[in-house]
Amino acid sequence: MKHLMHRWPSLLLCLLAVLIAIAAHQRAGFAAMDRWPKLRAAMVHTIKGYAATLPETASTGGISDNVLKVMSEVPRHRFVPRRVEHRAYQDRPLPIGHGQTISQPFIVALMTELLKVNRDAKVLEIGTGSGYQAAVLAGLAETVCTIEIIPELGETAAALLKALDYTNVQTKVGDGYYGWPDCGPFDGIIVTAAAGHVPPPLIKQLKPGGRIVIPIGGVFGPQYLTLVEKTAGDQLQTRQLIPVRFVPFTRGSP
Ligand code: SAH
Question: Which listed residue, 50, 133, 134, 173, has the most CB atoms within 10 A of its CB?
């Protein structure tokens, strides 16, 4: 006991050091939590600025406030791997594993804008990937159905969307070429991988007045973001918009 008594100042110092370390750790945690909304706001600012310079978006009034609002709320850092989390709010695509990428935020904003999603809309996404685009759509539409061909990505995204309480998103692992007839028909369909053509089953599952936003082009050749509109009379109107670079639309059963 006497022996310990001699050592109490150093024990006290150790205890103090541990308490300081815990406090510093907690502060760092709170600081990190605090920094995400600021980084998201900066990302939205960048998107707005870019949209104003691009003829395709500037001529139509840029990206709508409701799209920007949702993007200022969805925690993109939760949809990217931890090692690139610090880059989550930069306006660039990021790797999400399995050779796939989460799209650049501006492209997410543009594709969402082009889809013209209403509150009561049912939307289909082909290429769930990280689940980020589905989360953005979930903030605007009534229901989002999303399909991913790589099982690991589809399952991880499904679990994350559930954990983050996106209750209006339905997920499925499979080949999105065939769409999701049981989930449709859809007011809007968004394809987030570059295809050689618009898959006919998607056109079939689109309601009259609906829109498909899809990058069309090859893996090495040029790709163009393409907007397909189905008129009330079931006619198709197709418009090629800006050049883009997407991962390829793949085929086959998962
Ligand atoms: N929207 C995603 C971007 C993912 S990248 C996000 O927000 O993170 C495109 C995704 O499309 C990849 O995960 C790829 O595996 C998937 N994909 C490619 N071909 C597909 C197909 N035929 N059916 C479903 N998903 C497909």
Answer: 134
Confidence of residue 27 (pLDDT cuts 50, 70, 90): very low
pLDDT at 55: 78
Q: How many residues make up the chain in this entry?
A: 254
> Which range among 5-14, 199-208, 236-245 shows the weakest confidence by mean pLDDT?
5-14
Q: Which two tokens stand for residue 178?
A: 């065939």
Distance in angstroms between the alpha carbons of the first and the last residue of the chain: 68
Higher pLDDT, 22 or 129: 129
Question: Which of 10, 64, 72, 103 is flagged as catalytic?
Answer: 103
Is 103 assigned a catalytic role? Answer: yes
What pLDDT, in 10s, does the model give residues 52-96?
888 777 777 789 999 999 999 999 999 999 999 999 999 999 999
Q: Please tell me the residue having the least CA distance from ligand 1 atom 18.
A: 249
Going by alpha carbons, the residue nearest to atom 10 of ligand 1 is 127
Domains with residue ranges and CATH for the chain: 47-244 (3.40.50.150)
Q: Give residue 252 CA to ligand 1 midpoint distance, Å.
A: 13
